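Example complex used in Figure S2.
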Amino acid sequence: MTEPLLVVEDLVKDFPVRRGAVFGRQVGTVRAVDGVSFDVRPGETLGIVGESGCGKSTLARCVMRLLDVESGRIEFAGRDITHLSRREMRDVRSDLMMVFQDPYESLNPHMRVGDIIAEPLEIYKRRPEGGIRHRVKELLDRVGLRPEHYDRFPHEFSGGQRQRIGIARALALEPKLIVCDEPVTALDVSVQAQILNLLSDLQGEFGLTYIFIAHDLDVVRHVSDRLCVMYLGQISERGRCEDVYRHPRHPYSASLMAAVPIADPKLARARKPIVLEGEIPSPLDRPGACRFHPRCPRATEICAAEDPPARQFEPDHEAHCYFPVERWPLDDPSELASRTDPDAAVQSS
Amino acid sequence: MTVLDVRELRTTFQTREGAACAVDGVSFTLERGRVLGLVGESGSGKSVTSLSLMRLLPRGVSVEGQALLNGFDLVTADDADLRRLRGDEIAMIFQDPTTSLNPVYTVGWQVEEMIRLHNEIPRAQVHQRARDMLGAVGIAQPAARLDDYPHQFSGGMRQRVMIAMALANNPSVLIADEPTTALDVTTQAQILVLLRRLRAEFDSAIMLITHDLGVVAEICDDVAVMYGGRIVERAPVDEIFESPRHPYTWGLLDSMPSRATSGRLRSIPGTPPSLTELPGGCRFHPRCPVAMEKCRTDAPALRSAGGGDDGHLDACHLAAEQKRARGQGLASAPAASR
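Predicted assembly (687 residues):
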């Protein structure tokens, strides 16, 4: 098996909680990322899904070293980058790029599009063949914009075109890994499809590796090879994308998938919805042990008492749960609540 | 039974770049107990349509045409009429429940205000009704929650409060503008289940504005697809998904990752037009894969392709057989992938 390009081990990120308007005094911490481990292999797309507040964007920023972590390890291309200084990170950054969610906020409105895309080349003092201007025009063309867009300003572009500019900027230094944080969320459906196609073309052409973060399960399923499902700062399930979608094992992944609207009215009517009670608790008062137990239809005392262990299913498919979902899809939503006791199962066999 | 009959609604904004016709001759009806989905991308005019019906647009925006709510024309209604109708006969819920509730009043006060304004009943009854409404939308311990402020509620719970307020006087028409867009997917599922239940209970006509065809499939009975200020296709929900006839509808369905059959999505080229530079003829022709010469000059009327009265209308010059063949080919593909 090839060496992973990125290895993340037991990553922890806290944010201070302050009280008071001006001289805020720290009254506690919120653990936004809580012991997350995963790896990304060269040329693949790792999808990270979860609802708001699950820590997926914070995780992306930690991996990019835009945020310092409390503990854990980030290894990129065989090098431990967890504690590199800003100066040392410069060598790594050219291989590690990011595409942001909001193409309206992430482009400097005072800069011309060409200069935005050229900036990484200038900073890294790259001298591309044919000159920087030529290289930028090449990039514009590659992402589906026209060379004459070079001298325009971001406000002259639509959301989809701005996202193309952001992608061209991320490509400028020919990085190995691009972290895409909700890259299509702000776009219309038809434009979203164009950007997804573009990302997939570029991956094939340049052998790019993606971490693709989104809350839209259909989008993530479409682009990802492997998948991590996050809930309250932890990865509750991960595995090959098709394995997880075909048979989600963690009750949270299962309810998430069952909640996605089906774009087929007959199937939608036939399906009995699985509706989770309640909402994601605030990270300020997270439940102990299994984070999901207060909303979980299968939870027992043990789920509230002890961290659930990782259970392996298919190779490379694991879920942290005492009572993983036995079969999928369910004939009846109430089945999600009726767990088989693993001890009883052992005794009877 | 028809409760709202919209005829040739036309809404024009005056901008520095000239007149922008955000809604351009839109006609449809809302029926009691049914949900009409108004679908489209940004700038399609779907939200302006709802704001025009609620008469919530600023002065100076011209609204023409007719919108008959139980026979009473909303377009020409004066302020006194509107005060009487809004919240009583026609109510609306918005995308962002955070900014649509007043942060300095309790939730109970806001729900009670809605009831008080339209009913002369004793205070105790108002209070009782507010409590019942919160209960009906699935808020636990409604009596206690009445004294809480909006910030003490989560996003999904706030949207429930908005729905409770909107339905408090059992309106004939409920307009829901992207009611689940700001919510997480598990919360969205809760709200959709709630809307489905309330539709049966309250028997209102619901107009649901959304960009998400998945939400449409889950809850709507009829669908109107909008593009560039016009309705380009209108049909019962099964028809839209099984035999879509307008090339824009094909593109929308093709763009959905969940319906993709291969790695590439068949997206629509280009971007939705700006309202100040709408193309002539069929508004979709610059992005349309099957556009003909005629499409550049003649705007197609919304009519039945087969000439029959099957309730399926589209605005496209393409021959009926072509539309049928393409639309059905498209619909049969994705079923296998799920």
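Chain A touches chain B at residues 51-52, 158-161, 188-194, 196-197, 200, 215-219, 221-223, 255-256, 258-268, 273-276, 279-280 (CB under 8 Å). Residues 344-349 of chain A have pLDDT under 50 and may be disordered.
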